[in-house]
Write a structure and sequence with these properties.
5 helices, 0% strand, 131 residues, mainly alpha
């Protein structure tokens, strides 16, 4: 009985360890880069609505509040998400839904918000809360 329990536990541990790299890699994956020229194609949702055959639609749940303006923030080849790793948010977000209230360059010891023309509601698209 002890041997069976040990073998079962060992097999379960082995399976967990074997799948760990895939799980970690999935968390670090970057969004896909737009594979076509964007010239004259400012309305991403015209084709990526999910209604055109052979063209991948926008993920319904994870992208439900996004507009065409948001697409290139993540999916262009020169996006910060593609070229680097955005800094983590070192604090919780409870009651802090307007990042530029503090990140405006006027408060000492608070890093200024370097992005121009990006709506404050989009900060957490790139920046995640440090756990």
């Amino acid at each position: 009985m002890r041997v069976v329990r040990f073998v079962t536990l060992a097999a379960a541990m082995l399976m967990l360890v074997a799948t760990l790299p895939g799980r970690l890699a999935a968390q670090d994956q970057k969004p896909p880069v737009v594979p076509h020229d964007l010239e004259g194609k400012a309305n991403c949702l015209m084709c990526h609505s999910g209604k055109m055959p052979n063209i991948k639609g926008v993920p319904a749940e994870s992208h439900k509040d996004y507009t065409n303006d948001n697409c290139v923030l993540c999916h262009s080849k020169d996006s910060p998400l593609q070229t680097g790793t955005p800094p983590l948010i070192p604090h919780d977000l409870q009651g802090k839904d307007n990042c530029v209230m503090c990140h405006n360059g006027k408060m000492p010891n608070v890093k200024a918000e370097p992005h121009k023309n990006i709506d404050v509601k989009n900060c957490t698209l790139c920046h995640k809360v440090k756990s």
